[in-house]
Amino acid sequence: MKIRPKRLQPGDTVGVLAPCSPLAMETLPEKIDFLEELGLKVKIGKTVGLTGKYLSGTDDERIEDLHEMIEDKEIKAIFCLRGGYGAARIADKIDYQLLNENPKIFWGFSDVTYFHNAFQEYSDIVTFHGPMLSSVVQKKLSDFSKRMFQQLFTPFEIQYDEKISSLHTIVPGVVRGELTGGNLHRLMSTMGTKFEFDARGKILLFEDIGEPLQKIDGMLNQLRLARKLDQAAGFVIGDFAELEKGACIEDVWAIFEEYLKPLGKPAVAGYKIGHCEPNIAVPLGVDAILDADTKLLRILPGVE
């Protein structure tokens, strides 16, 4: 059983950092306003405002910022500003025992998938796959997505069915297991490293953006050859946005069907989790029940 961080209370202080790609500073105030509207106080990380060609500061600056926020007893949660690229560059420099000794909420997605996987494996802590603060702009982050931040204050079981989005059962059946995963491309980049994701008995979440059908097929084939798909207990297929011209989401589901149907593991596609709106935030590292027959996904709370 992984460590569930403590729930937030109004008035708590949270940290905001940029551990991956940089963010245009002129958009920062609205991100801070959003957190303050939730009743939170905000500490800005040293990496916020640092710029490079594609990284928010040097590796040393980003790892130092992360460590300081983890050690800071006043900070109860860490929110990532944006994804992009950079998590994998510092994954082997993180003091994982530090987070294990100072458990707190860690929130983000996309490139942050690399952190999620590493923190669950080496810090043994539940993390949150949710919208980046870079998405917090009027008309971009829906009210539904914003409401999902409330799970950090009041623990509740997430129940996802077709009232939220149309779902497609790829393989029927019911399974219970630990929910893990995230961005498919970033999960693939863990292969062959000490951070290679563990699929054994897990319900795997996959989402991605801007990948051609051929590459999606190639990534799934590599997971098949590595026995990751065979080791998993079930599959939650999230959003695959910005497909190549002429492709549709049904083409993506057809690729998943080709790889997952022979396995006989419960699998459902169409979840609004990922680079989409709404973007339903979910805890990773907690138990979930996937009922592919009734198209109901139930996820236990991520905080205590």
Automatic annotation (TrEMBL):
Keywords: Carboxypeptidase, Hydrolase, Protease, Serine protease. Residues 176-288 form the LD-carboxypeptidase C-terminal domain. The active site is at S110, E207, H275. Transmembrane segments: none annotated. It holds the Pfam family Peptidase_S66. GO terms for biological process: proteolysis. It comes from the Bacteria. GO terms for molecular function: carboxypeptidase activity; serine-type peptidase activity. Gene3D superfamilies: Class I glutamine amidotransferase-like, LD-carboxypeptidase A C-terminal domain-like. InterPro entries: Carboxypeptidase_A_C_sf, Class_I_gatase-like, LdcA_N, Peptidase_S66_N, Peptidase_S66C, S66_fam. Residues 14-130 form the LD-carboxypeptidase N-terminal domain. Belongs to the peptidase S66 family. This is LD-carboxypeptidase.
